[in-house]
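Quick one:
INPUT:
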């Protein structure tokens, strides 16, 4: 449970950062003001349509955009390294966006049912349950469909095939154009009836037992949609890889030259007598003559003749001891003080008479 609580805090912070919460607050204020300005009877008729078409599906597009963004930024790879499972991440996102839809719907229901304060709790319970049920089904369904799409345009092409039946059938049922029990096979129909039943009970012809059975069926569909979304996100499409340089193997006969080749371009190790140019510390190419010059200087530093230019002249012996010259004593052990630029090193068989 600790990782789920942490995921809830993270998801809420993400939606705050990308402005989803302010958009929800703006919609709540807008529709609440509109319904408050309308007559009470008109507001009760209009509110169920607004709650179904706008508020219940509020997070459908946002859940897709967030998934596309995470895929582009490789955020899914970072989440894979955490203890949070894919199913938990999907459930957390769906719950947070559903909570936003419910929060938008609450003041709208209050504004529409202001003429009957006694029936307001029942209207809130029924209306918010219908909004939550519709949102809990639409969000994982959109997430599952978008997980297979590589871009947002691909998702928008497929979306009408999935969303049109889920929206059109309940709207036909709400307007009374068509009344048939088979319409409840669409899971969003019972949610629309719950929203309508809270504000206009006389418009719902079905008894409460039928609504309860339809709600149970819709909950089963919600669970199946969540399972489908989890599997789709696990096996979903990945972001297009960044363009890479194309290399053509020698002797392939291709007319496309690899990057960095062409007339006047000498590649390292191309066999034309060129010396590879090495870099050091990322500060640009190092001339090829420099390593040779350094090696040559190191060699002269180990040459016994270098001591002829030193003020402390020494003659080396295999045992590493020497005799002083020029009135200066010979060094018989490693120097104990700091070595000056003109003082001799301690003589050893591996580095004989090296001066600094």
């Amino acid at each position: 449970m600790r990782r789920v609580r942490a995921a809830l805090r993270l998801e809420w912070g993400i939606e705050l950062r990308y402005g989803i919460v302010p958009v929800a607050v703006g919609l709540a204020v807008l529709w609440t003001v509109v319904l408050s300005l309308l007559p009470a009877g008109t507001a009760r008729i209009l509110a169920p349509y607004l709650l179904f078409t706008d508020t219940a599906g509020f997070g459908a597009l946002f859940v897709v955009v967030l998934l596309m963004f995470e895929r582009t930024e490789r955020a899914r790879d970072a989440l894979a390294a955490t203890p949070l499972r894919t199913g938990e991440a999907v459930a957390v996102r769906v719950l947070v966006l559903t909570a936003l839809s419910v929060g938008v719907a609450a003041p709208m229901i209050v504004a529409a049912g202001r003429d009957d304060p006694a029936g307001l709790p029942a209207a809130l319970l029924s209306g918010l349950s219908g909004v939550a049920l519709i949102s809990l089904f639409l969000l994982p369904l959109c997430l599952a469909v978008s997980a297979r799409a590589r871009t947002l345009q691909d998702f928008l092409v497929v979306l009408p095939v999935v969303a049109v039946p889920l929206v059109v059938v309940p709207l036909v049922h709400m307007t009374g154009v068509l009344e048939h029990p088979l319409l409840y096979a669409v899971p969003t129909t019972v949610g629309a009836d719950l929203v309508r039943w809270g504000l206009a009970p006389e418009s719902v012809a079905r008894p409460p037992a039928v609504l309860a059975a339809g709600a149970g069926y819709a909950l089963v569909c919600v669970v199946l949609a969540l399972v489908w979304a989890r599997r789709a996100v696990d096996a979903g499409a990945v972001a297009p890889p960044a363009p890479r340089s194309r290399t053509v193997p020698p002797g392939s006969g291709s007319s496309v030259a690899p990057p960095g080749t062409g007339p006047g371009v000498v590649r390292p190790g191309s066999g034309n007598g060129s010396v590879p140019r090495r870099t050091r510390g990322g500060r640009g190419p190092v001339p090829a003559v420099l390593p040779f010059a350094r090696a040559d200087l190191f060699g002269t530093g180990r040459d016994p003749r270098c001591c002829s230019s030193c003020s402390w002249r020494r003659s080396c012996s295999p045992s590493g001891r020497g005799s002083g010259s020029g009135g200066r004593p010979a060094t018989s052990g490693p120097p104990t003080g700091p070595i000056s630029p003109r003082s001799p090193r301690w003589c050893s068989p591996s580095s004989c008479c090296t001066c600094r």
